[in-house]
Amino acid sequence: MRSQLTIFLVAMGIASAGISSAALAQAWPQRPVTVIVPFAAGGNTDGIARMTAQRLGAAFGKPFIVENRPGASGAIAAELSKRAAPDGYTLFVAALPVMAIVPAMSKVRYDPQKDFAPISNIATNSFALVVNKDIPVKTLPEFVDYVRAHNGELSYGSAGIGSLNHLSMVLFLKRAGLEMVHVSYKGNAPALTDVMAGHVMAMFSNLSDALAQANGGTVRMLAISSEARSPLAPNVPTVSESGYPNFNVLTWNGLMAPAGTPQDIIDKVAREVGAAVKDPKFASQLADYGVDPLGNTPAEYKAMLAKDIPVWTEALDAAGVKQEDDAK
């Protein structure tokens, strides 16, 4: 009898846990949801997070409150989000560098693939290979020939060692078998300014910054780093279609939740993000930040992250950037 009672109580406990989990997901949200952003207010990630939070709040009838937690290149926010209760009341706006680059450069207390449940990648941002307007090249093949003729003598700029545009150029040069001298700046803008002035020949610039200067005639855009052409620059070919297939590097901002968050909640939020990016008004707001709407499914986002991590690990290895033991 005692054995049968034990089995009955265990079975009831499992059933109750299942009902509680289902009920939680069905009733969610009953209170405000915190949306953690890994950078300070005012940047692209913050702006995208606030747009998305406003949309989700309107859709679900509860406030989605953005909380900026900058520091340690985003690791502080990631660790905080990882430790949050997996109940749907804490979401994390993950940026590609935080998930695919920072863990390869520093010892961090989170696993990008095990500690988070991907929800939906909101938008992507590709890079544009730009050259000074006086450089006699108009296509990517011409750029390759020009650099090869001056191998190791020409310089390129970036936003700093380990930055996305630094690693994008390192990866391209490796695949093209070229050598250039890296000049590091404190941000994309000063690097692009020196390309315009002719102090460095080229760089992979944020597309939004590159577009403004290319339209003004101060730089020439040769190729886009993403797999497909950007709607923001449909006439500019991709690196992939210009002779280097499978070259696909871009950055992104997407929603994640702590691992173990009920799948029903994950799916609800993902569906709403997917609907938002199809809204012309929302898509137009994203375009103002120079990003391309995506809004993929949780499974697609998970696969995207798994594919991106080895790409940026390869780039870091090619750049000679080693992991430092400096966990915060």
UniProtKB/TrEMBL annotation:
Please tell me whether the keyword RNA-binding is annotated for this protein. Answer: no
Q: Tell me which UniProt keywords the record has, alphabetically.
A: Receptor, Signal
A Pfam cross-reference name: TctC
- Gene3D superfamilies, per this entry? Bordetella uptake gene, domain 1, Periplasmic binding protein-like II
Top-level division of the source organism's lineage: Bacteria
Signal sequence extent:
1-25
CDD domains per UniProt: PBP2_Bug_TTT (cd07012)
Q: Does the keyword Nucleus apply?
A: no
Matching entries from InterPro entries are given as: BUG (IPR005064), Bug_dom1 (IPR042100)
- Which SUPFAM superfamilies does this entry report, sorted A to Z? Periplasmic binding protein-like II
The entry sums up its family as follows:
Belongs to the UPF0065 (bug) family.
Q: Would you tell me the protein name for this molecule?
A: Tripartite-type tricarboxylate transporter, receptor component TctC
Organism in which the protein naturally occurs: Bradyrhizobium erythrophlei
